[in-house]
Request: fold
Amino acid sequence: MAVDHLFAAGVNFGSLPAQVVNGILIGSLYALIALGYTMVYGVLRLINFAHGEVYMLGAYTALFVSWLIYGNQVAPVHTFWWALPTMLLASMTVSALVGVILERFAYRPLRNEPRIASLITAIGLSLLLQFGGQLFLPVAPPPNINAKVNPYSDSMTFYLKPPAKPLADKASSLEAEATATEKAYNEALSGVPSGEEPGPTVTALRNNYFEARNAYEEAKGAAANSGVSVTIPKGQLIMFVVTMFLMAILRHLVMFTKQGRAMRAVSHDFDSASLMGINVNSTVTFTFILGSALAGAGAMMSATFISGVKIDTFYGLLPGVKAFVAAVLGGIGNIPGAVLGGLLMGVAESLVIWVGWGDYKDAVAFLILIGVLMFRPGGLLGSAKVEKV
Amino acid sequence: MGLAEEVRGLSQAVLTLDKATIRFGGLFAVRDVSFSIQSGDLFGLIGPNGAGKTTCFNLITGVYKPTAGVVKFGDTVLNGQAPNRICEMGIARTFQNIRLFSSMSALENVVVAGSLRQKSSFISALSYLPSAIKETGEIRARALELLKVMDLEDIADVRSCDLPYGKQRRLEIARAMATDPTLLLLDEPAAGMNPQESEQLMRTVRRIRDEFGKTVLLIEHDMKFVMNLCERIVVLDHGVEIASGGPAEIRNNPKVIEAYLGEAV
Amino acid sequence: MSFWIRRLASIALAVGGCFLIDWFAKENLKDFIVRLVVLAALYITLAVSLNLINGITGQFSIGHAAFYQVGAYAAGLATVTFYKSQPLGLALWIPLMMLVGGVTASVAGLVVGLPSLRLRGDYLAIVTLGFGEIIRIVTQNLKVVGAASGMAVEPKMSTPMIWLAWLLAITSIAVCRNLLQTAHGLGFLAVREDEIASSAMGVNVTRTKVAAFVLGSAFAGMAGGFLAHYEGFLIPTMFTMDVSFIILTMVVLGGSGSVTGSVIAAILLSTLPEFLRDIQQISMAGLVAAAISIIAGVVAVRYVSQHVHTPSTRRIAYPGAIIGSIILTVVLSKVLAFIPTLANASTDGSRIRLVIFAVTLVVLMLVRPQGLLGHREFGWGSLRRSEA
Reply:
């Protein structure tokens, strides 16, 4: 079974830091989504299964707004600085709106029914948005938004340990040679009249160039492997910074505003809070606005900055599941726990890929989930509640 | 000489708590509580709110495991036994906040408890063999009998959550009786009852002891109820035993009066 | 003695009924319908067995497709590996393989049942879902069973053994019914109602829960074993989360805890949406009209349940709300057809199949959370009463 995959890819300790950083970047996205799960669970004791679909609709909003701004061009000629912020705001607004609608019309009527009824409704809504959405929403295969409007598609490389000096020197000398042969080949090629077969000299030059380039690539790889480097796509770095910024805002809202205090009170004891004159309904709405807006922000950023995933109505399924696991891992209902859980989840996932078990990447989320629930049901930062007899 | 005198004559400790202690975090909910109940006793456990009475019940019935000390049933140590094992040994209880099987009928509630020591196997139930059918019939007949004792036979088919409060309390007692216990623990059986109902309940509890030969340990806030019914009483306050003895002693014990602070004892 | 005569007669009747269905279906029905008859039986088995876990024992499990899958793959693998080197004919071999599937699935059920000892409600739900996904992902990468590209089960049944599927369905119903008729079964219900009280009353909660999981998954596994030889081909995408949700919808629609409810819901939900597959073009106008009318209907029914209290008015108001929303659908679809974008757009029936399940779940929770039959049984409920 899994055993023959063990270390199949050959573990390269030099790439470990890169994978950890990668994991933290993705993990910040999971954390952002996990906050929505955890806050809703905190106040309503409900696993909002449809949260992943709120996220999915956020991604679609970003996609549609990008179409509005840039039309359907494959690559925009120039980028507007306000395009990305507009998409972000639009996604957050639409997601918040969807969250509020779901709460008002599906969850609120069931608040006095057994909790299982709300859970089944949440599952039903999730399926409804996935399959019902299919009837109305287009499928946008990659490259979708990211190739069009992401001006930050290149990446930056940091060296933790620089490449060995001789290897680096060799690589740079070979680079010069490759550039020279390329130039020679191109010049010779431009001398050939169009429609005619290039002569043997040109072919020889071409072979020269290919040889030199291969040698350069090889040397470059060897040099890179001798050092320890971290490559970060700029877009994901921006994503990380925005995520941290949003979390700081969330913390301020929850800790220092009246609504935030009410939210904490409701999550501590729903019934007592309502007896103490807290408007429970508006507090729950507030919670859904916060959680869903964060999911919308995450969706916009992942749709823009993470390439290679097509946007369809199942776009929120896996991130949703993983974020949920993150929330449970940190201790569901616990806001710092969700952030911690998200980051750990991201790192765990990249480590699994690093070890070479990429095929089982998605199963790992569930394994962590089951492990946590079995051995520490309260999560890392939460505490399990004991039923009073 | 009734059955009860006979049973009491044997005078053997049914239940012994020896320095039973349980701690939740830093808080001692019950600390070094020791008492023993003789066969045929009507034993009262009283104390102000939060004194640790229900926790004591939970220690005895295996819901919680004592942090220190020993709980013994006859000669068997109960520490760490599962609740269903303890019930099987012969300790049954009711709950302070009624925990009936709410969407099941009164009769079904009693049948569940009555099927405790059934002999027919699970497989015979699945294949509906005569042994299982017959035994189910017997359990049901016994359950109906118990409902009659508790004056509940007319509501046998009513869903237990639709019953009035007083009947729910009595149904809980009937259900506990169905496990055929040696020791019956009643957690505030008279709570929420009017004087007539509680008068009637008092007679029923006495009957359970006298006719069925059960030993009864009960928690109750209604002092009249406890003083009239129980022959021996232990008083807890803040998890610690502050007094024990007969009703008269307890009534005049200054510590008890202080604990209740002005409540008429 | 008369007991055994009656017992044998009822068994003979059941088996005879199965062969009657088999004969009738093969003589009179089109292949497409025959397939539905078989699938209905499998879904009855799945729904009834999930109901044993979910409804009767109250352990909210939503990963039932996993047991179906384990049973299917175990039986399929056994056939591929051993069939050629043994003397049994297919008619005996397939029931045997269903048992193999059942036993393997019940082992999986045992593993999944263990968390139920510590977890409740939504947490347990998510763990069962997780187990289901893990099993699917592992199968997807397991070369022995063809990984993601699937596995051919050779030999498959030459003609559909409809009787066998129905015999399985009837057996699962009978087992649940028997259980509920005896004192043992009431223990299962008690665990659903209150675990702490049941253990205080001497019910072995651990054993009860594990028994429910093992028994429920065994039936799902047998259904899987049948499926393997019926389809002749297994692929992990046959057992995604959607299948689990479909089975869950059946249980919820029928009423958790009601075996007969599960049976009715399984028949309805396994057949009706299939007919939609045939409809090539469903106009968007109709779909939008249906969506609006469903919302209106839900609002109306909820209004009646909250504000109308006289029984006689209710008797008129409830059907009124339902008929009203049906009429509204028809009228609105005609009106909306005047809007060109809606009139011209259409979708094919297969795409709205799962939408129907989703809508069923949500509407049901808002309108009648206890399902069609609630905890009641259709036809044998009186046997649980006191007049024995």
